[in-house]
Amino acid sequence: MPDLPGTATVMTLGAHMCKWPIGDPSSTEFSFCGRRASEGVYCIEHARVAYQPQVKRGGATDLARSLRRYI
Ligand SMILES: [Zn+2]
After folding, report:
1. Number of domains in the chain
2. 39 alpha carbon – ligand 1 mean position (Å)
C-alpha cells in the first residue's frame, strides 16, 4: 500500500515522501505520489521525469521559447 502512487494527500505527505502531484489540483481526488523520496523530493521514477537531462541540446528551451510567443 505505501508503495502505490497517489496515496498521499497534503495532510499525510511527509518530508521524505515523493511530492509528485497526481490528478487535478482543483479536484478533491488530487493527491501526491507519496512513495519514498530518494532523489530530492521525488521518488526514483518521478525524479527521472522531473530531472530529465536535456537529450537534445536546447530542445526544451526552444520549445518554451516558441510557446511563450503564443501565450
Ligand atoms: Zn513519485
Report:
1. 1
2. 10
